[in-house]
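Help needed: design a sequence for this.
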């Protein structure tokens, strides 16, 4: 049998892709972790400034909103990559394997569609708001929706990778294995 008939070439193709996606997810985890640390530090500064110095730093709220957006949307993309996103798996566990696979495909397609919508409309919102500035920190307003755009693109990418692995019979997620 040739590689074309067995699909070995396609399976070999996915190995470097999986490594790249794992590296992207790791970078996202580092970014969201760093954002959480910075968020904690600036809120500590807010409390110190308000109650000790009697001078509230007004920029903290605006910076915190940017950090929360980064944590939420980039973190959600990592959750899709790791198959840790919110889903109802009770029904998948109760049905036979072929139906379970159909449920997984529908879930991955829905996630890919949702990620695609986040990417497209997030990019439109980012471009629309880029010309105005965020008060107090003087950064482009489009930065608020940039994590939405990037997170949507990553959710789309990670969902398509799940579907590709499933098609190549390389899916190792627990709810798709017999």
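Sure. Designed sequence:
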């Amino acid at each position: 049998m040739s590689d074309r008939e067995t699909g070995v070439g396609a399976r070999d193709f996915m190995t470097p892709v999986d490594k790249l996606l794992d590296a992207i997810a790791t970078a996202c985890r580092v970014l969201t972790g760093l954002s959480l640390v910075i968020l904690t530090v600036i809120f500590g500064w807010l409390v110190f400034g308000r109650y000790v110095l009697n001078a509230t730093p007004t920029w903290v709220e605006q910076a915190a909103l940017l950090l929360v957006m980064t944590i939420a949307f980039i973190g959600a993309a990592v959750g899709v990559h790791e198959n840790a996103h919110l889903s109802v798996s009770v029904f998948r566990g109760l049905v036979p394997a072929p139906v379970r696979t159909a449920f997984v495909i529908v879930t991955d397609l829905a996630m890919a569609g949702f990620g695609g919508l986040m990417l497209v409309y997030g990019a439109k919102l980012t471009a629309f708001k880029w010309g105005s500035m965020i008060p107090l920190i003087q950064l482009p307003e489009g930065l608020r929706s940039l994590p939405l755009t990037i997170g949507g693109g990553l959710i789309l990418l990670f969902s398509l990778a799940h579907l590709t692995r499933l098609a190549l019979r390389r899916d190792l997620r627990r709810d798709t294995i017999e």
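The helical segments are 3-6, 8-53, 59-81, 90-94, 97-129, 146-167.
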